[in-house]
């Protein structure tokens, strides 16, 4: 996509030019989130481009085929993501073809954000560092309502309407999409968790309104299920230097007609991406 007119700021993005359009503002933390995401994806783009060019030159005999390039060629033959890519990339268990398609969709998501402004509905799966988006949403709410950010928590509402009907941003919080429900189904009529349908392993969740609220005012019942959100189905990660897990994102509250322990025993969780 390097020569595509759609990417008006080039690939890798010229972040300084994007910052002129989306300057750092006290009332809009999403501008900072966008520029930070561009910097993270730029690193991945540079690695993918440089290693592909090196591999082409090595096959032609222009440069020596190093052990890393040989491993990369073997990974291509096996249809898996090369280690040199995954070391600089976001967590993903997808095979090579699906990974690259997903990568291009993430670039398109960010470029559409640049071209058309802050979206009404955010694709949560498209972020490299999901926690930065969540912190930005909390920060916007805290600054708008003059509250301390460490006194805030999250409330969640599953939106019954289709995404196409959500044409404007909410007053507070963010609309998000891109989650997949693993281990349970969803009752669209009652807007609650339901038993998993036969032969349906993963279910695309409806749009969810992530709304910050005061932690003191948050009250949960025994039928509110704290559903963990993971980036991949591995459901495990390591603690990064930022203090966040490389896989676990957060817990979201989903309404349920049963007690929460029913879904805990089933291992119900939400994933930001599937393995295929």
- Average per-residue pLDDT, rounded, comes to 93
Number of strands: 11
User: What's the shape?
Assistant: globular
C-alpha Rg (nearest Å):
21 Å
Uncertain residue ranges: none
Category by helix and strand content: alpha+beta
The number of helical runs is 7
Q: Give the DSSP E fraction (strand runs of 2 or more residues).
A: 15-25%
Trace the largest sheet across and list its strands: 7-4-11-9-10
Largest sheet: 5 strands, mixed
Alpha-carbon distance between the two ends: 22 Å
Estimate percent helicity.
25-40%
The topology string of helices and strands comes to HHHHHEHEEEEEEEEEHE
Q: Could you describe the 3D structure shown?
A:
The strands form 3 sheets. Strands 7-4-11-9-10 form a 5-stranded mixed β-sheet. The protein has a 4-stranded mixed β-sheet with strand order 1-3-8-2. By secondary structure, the chain is an alpha+beta fold. The chain contains 7 helices and 11 strands. Helices cover 35% and strands 18% of the residues.
Tags for this model:
276 residues; alpha+beta; five-stranded mixed beta sheet; four-stranded mixed beta sheet; 7 helices; 11 strands
